[in-house]
User: Fold Oxidoreductase protein from Sinorhizobium americanum.
Amino acid sequence: MARGWVRAIAATPDLRSQIRLVGLVDVKPEVATALAAEFDLKDVVIGSDLDAVLAETKPDILFDVVVPAARREVVATGFRHGCHVLSEKPMATSIEAGRELVRLADEAGKLHAVVQNRRFISGVRRIRRFVEEGALGELTGIHCDFFIGAHFGGFREEMDHVLLLDMAIHTFDAARFIADKKPIAVYCHEENPRGSWYRHGAAAMAIFELSDKVTFTYRGSWCAEGANTSWESAWRITGTRGTLLWDGAESFRAHTVSGGDGFLREPLPLEIPEPADPRQTHGHASVIADFVAAIRSGQKPETASDDNINSLAMVFAAIESARTRQRVTI
Assistant:
């Protein structure tokens, strides 16, 4: 994942002009050395001791790209050294741990945000604008399908609740952003289907109740092979005046209906607007740019942890519902 972050900075002139990478820390220093060589990073301090590298380099920002179980100590260490911290998702391994990170950021007087890069893509931004402008009338439902047979190897294949915790949070967060509603409750069924190469929880189906009587449904699997959806899921968004379909890639279709008579009304196509701000459509680069801009302006970044914890709460409520087989309030 660190390679993606460094590539985003290296490939974005505005970020290159604002950010100078001064250190790389890894439990295996040879991995950091290889990353520095790959991107021709000169004069970076490399080590396996985060405290020592932060003390030597004195950075403004710590990019936290560790596995979730190590998140708390890395973030807390960054705050002790006076850093703002931008973390990979998920922000924590429990809702209690997430609340602690919010508290630590507040006590340190530093920004802490989470890389929800999937909300910083053109498709999601276009849909948010389309919904905001009322083209579908009042929003009634968001329905997402995610089916990909992904063979990662490594820690993901050993995780508990791997789909919900490591991947579904992207779709949950994007749906919450598009709807601009609060999550209220969820019912979720989780399973590890026959043939799964994951240890636990490679598939799930969830029904979320959002505020203003909006329903969000999610069907997903990380071990469904033969007909992959987009990594962004396939979306159906319904409103009182029409429906939008998005395949998660380049295909958009939206229709309202004409007239008020007949068994099936005549569909009329709607145009999907371009994103309000194209700078917010470049994934990791846009998240990092938003975070840097927030530091400079004193404003809160879009994916600040005290907001992103609401997406995390959706994940852990879904996990609790799957465990208890009951509706869980958020």
